[in-house]
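User:
Care to share a sequence and structure tokens?

Assistant:
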Amino acid sequence: MAAETYALWKLLVLGIGLSCIILGVVFRIYIQPTPEYLVGVRQYSKSIPLLLFRVAVLGFFVAVWVLEISTTDWFDLVYYTWWNFSLQIVYFTLAIVDQAKHWHQARCYANHALNTLFDVCFTSCFLVALVYWILLFNPSNHLEWFVYVVHLVNVFVLLLDFGANDHVVQRTSLKYVVLWPTLYSILTWIGNSSYLDGFWPYNLMDLSKSLAPLIWFGIILAHVGCFGGVLLLSKLKLRCVGVPPPPPSDAVASPHVQNDLPHLEIVTPHVQDDLPHLEIVTPHIEKDPPRPKPATT
């Protein structure tokens, strides 16, 4: 009875906590407008090596995805690793399309949607690699070659793309970085109670563990920490290849300054007209009779 009560307590904590995260993220998306910002780094839209690199990466990632997913009969998609690997395939596909679209003319404003997608991929890729090699890796187990691809090779691939693309990690992407693992947690929880027949993809998520709620929220919080790390990398990128924003045009600013000058000149005569009134008051004060001196003895 005690064990069932404790399990119910964990379910309530997780249910309320995940719901609050979802509502908070949706509220932030609703009240925060989509920002427009200038591209802050050098653009390589006409870079043939970058385009060939992305095409090669996309072909390789798709081949790995098809081989592994077909081998496991789609079961690997229950793992967060393959969620992220699939999202990386989506990013490289859209990045190729975006680069081809702006091949002849570089854009002034950044592609916010693509930038946000890259921020989520970049952050989650680092976290998956850290969690796997620090917490889940067992040296005694034999590793298949694709394990290195989805836990290590993709990290270096995204680092190379980050060095060549025109994306700068945006603070506004944090809500999507938090939303991504939260959605995975909710769907995995639903799957555990339905189509997964009580199976947990990761032992860390097993609700029978006493610290399960803390681990679940800790993983989401770890995404925030990794996001801070990629923000620092982005600041380093700005220092190395950043370009200053264009200065405001003098032709736009000058007319406003010149048109304001006549208004100052109109006020000046009004001040001068008040001076005679001051002069009239002054003699009136001087004509006041002096006070009598006290009598002396």
Observations:
- Residues 1-6, 248-268, 270-285, 292-297 have pLDDT under 50 and may be disordered.
- The chain is about 70% helix and 0% strand.
- The two ends are 112 Å apart (CA to CA).
- The chain has one domain: 15-243.
